[in-house]
Design a protein that fits this description.
The complex is a heterodimer of chains A (365) and B (92). Chain A is an alpha/beta fold. Chain A has helices at 10-23, 35-43, 46-49, 63-66, 69-79, 102-107, 118-127, 144-156, 171-180, 193-199, 205-211, 222-237, 257-266, 296-299, 315-319, 351-359; strands at residues 28-32, 54-58, 84-88, 111-114, 132-139, 162-169, 188-192, 215-218, 243-245, 267-274, 278-287. In chain A, helix 8 (144-156) packs across helix 13. The relative contact order of chain B is 0.15. The chains are: A alpha/beta (365), B alpha+beta (92). Chain A: Belongs to the HypD family.
């Protein structure tokens, strides 16, 4: 496929690997903050090919993994109501709440539907005027434009039975939190390419300046990731800290202006609790005051939630890069994608799921 | 949900004021919203997230990136080739 096979070319991968090996005089600690990139790194064995040059710490880049437990419990309570159709991305269905998950709610008669696009949820609201349709809007800056357009479309079509449970999260504040931690070991970041497709690259300038940390905007294919590593290590070895765009075929400095305008219209920045990490200031989006009538959080009163995290799950340490998934005592035994203890084992983008899918049969290095 | 892969726009239409497109991912097709890419045209490759096209793939930039990769190591190879005869001479 075009723009995919070219960026999987083994001969060019060899050149990139040789270049990295020739440049690196020591092992550097790099962090990617994107579940898609985490999966690509593990799936293609890039961490093994680069074992002598790079220690990858996987950042909190899986959106369903960091969705706060309280918000999931809220979604579960709303989904259980007879008048509600709760729509969500498929990833979210198996994510454990305090006592249940959306699959279980559905098995008990709740109307939970998987949608591919938030616009599908708007369509459901139009087709079911006697039901309340709630879209569970989670994700980073990449999925938020889709949710924003769903809000706009619902209002344009005057759908009084559509609302959104919004729990969007923002990547740069999470990177700032990682850099600010007293035990931070991250020497450089591979920034999530598609987040920058929407947001542009300027938002990383203050991080580079304040922390003297190289940030390389990186794509998702094996060659993209190797190039991100190459450019990060090139900077580290020469004592530079710069913002570089290594994914220019999809990222422009200014981002996507139409999407940015829509995001500014519909959402407003707020503090957000990240599951396993805690509250990160100014790290989320909620509906702006003008759009409060679409807020499912106020439309459905679900008072009396008891929120309690599993005592056996160490996903907080995994999300902060303090624990490698295979080193978790529950990994692959008490915790599997079919019976996950935490969200990192569920999602197509979770770090535990990546190691389970691609590494559980390989002996540890 | 963040793994946007590039697909080719094969058809564009208007759905009640919103530009929509059929996007082909190597045989599998999806309907996607073009609201954020007012300039996108049939034949463009685009990156889709949650049913929305967010960027047209810049073909020239893709070629430039691949060309950079191809040049990696060439300099070293040339140096080695240039050095080889000299080393032979030195041994003589």
């Amino acid at each position: 496929m075009r723009y995919l096979t070219e960026f999987h070319d083994p001969e060019l991968a060899r050149r990139l690997l040789d270049d990295i090996a020739a440049t690196a005089t020591r092992r550097w600690t790099l962090m990617e903050v994107c579940g898609g990139q985490t999966h690509s790194i593990i799936r293609h064995g890039l961490d093994q090919l680069l074992a002598e040059q790079v220690e990858f710490i996987h950042g909190p880049g899986c959106p369903v993994c960091v969705t706060p437990l309280e918000m999931i419990d809220r979604a579960l309570a709303i989904a259980a109501r007879p008048e509600v159709i709760l729509c969500s991305f498929g990833d979210m269905l198996r994510v454990p709440g305090s006592a249940s998950d959306l699959f279980t709610v559905r098995a008990h008669g709740g109307d939970v539907r998987v949608v591919y696009s938030p616009l599908d949820a708007v369509g459901l609201a139009e087709a079911n005027p006697d039901r309340q349709v709630v879209f569970f809007a989670v994700g980073f800056e990449t999925t938020a434009p889709a949710a924003a357009m769903a809000a706009v479309t619902a209002r344009r079509r005057r759908l009084a039975n559509f609302s959104m449970l919004v729990s969007h999260v923002l990547v740069p504040p999470a990177m700032r939190a990682v850099l600010g931690a007293p035990d931070n070991r991250v020497a450089a970041f591979l920034a999530a390419g598609h987040v920058c497709t929407v947001m542009g690259t300027a938002q990383y300038e203050p991080l580079v300046a304040a922390h003297q940390v190289p940030i390389v905007v990186t794509g998702f294919e094996p060659l993209d990731l190797l190039d991100g590593v190459r450019q990060a290590i090139g900077q580290l070895e020469t004592g530079r800290a710069e913002l570089v765009n290594a994914y220019p075929r999809a990222v422009r400095a200014e981002g996507n202006p139409a999407a940015l305008a829509m995001l500014r219209e519909v959402f407003t920045v707020c503090d957000r609790a990240w599951r396993g990490i805690g509250v990160i200031p100014s790290s989320g989006w909620r509906l702006a005051p003008d759009w409060a009538d679409l807020d499912a959080q106020t439309r459905f009163d679900v008072a009396g939630l008891t929120v309690a995290e599993s005592a056996h799950c160490h996903s907080g340490a995994v999300l902060q890069g303090r624990l490698r998934p295979p080193d978790c005592p529950a990994f692959g035994t008490r915790c599997t994608p079919r019976h996950p203890l935490g969200a990192t084992m569920v999602s197509a983008e979770g770090a535990c799921a990546a190691y389970y899918q691609y590494r559980r049969l390989t002996p540890a290095l | 949900m963040c793994l946007g892969i590039p697909g080719r726009i094969t058809e564009i239409w208007d759905d009640r004021g919103t530009r929509m497109a059929l996007v082909d991912f190597g045989g599998a097709t999806r309907t996607s919203c073009l609201a954020y890419l007012p300039g996108a045209a049939v034949g463009d490759y685009t990156i889709i997230h949650a049913g929305f096209a967010l960027a047209v793939v810049d073909e020239e930039a893709a070629h430039r990136t691949l060309a950079t990769f191809r040049e990696l190591g060439l300099l070293d190879e040339m140096r080695r080739q240039l050095a080889a005869p000299r080393e032979r001479e030195a041994r003589r």
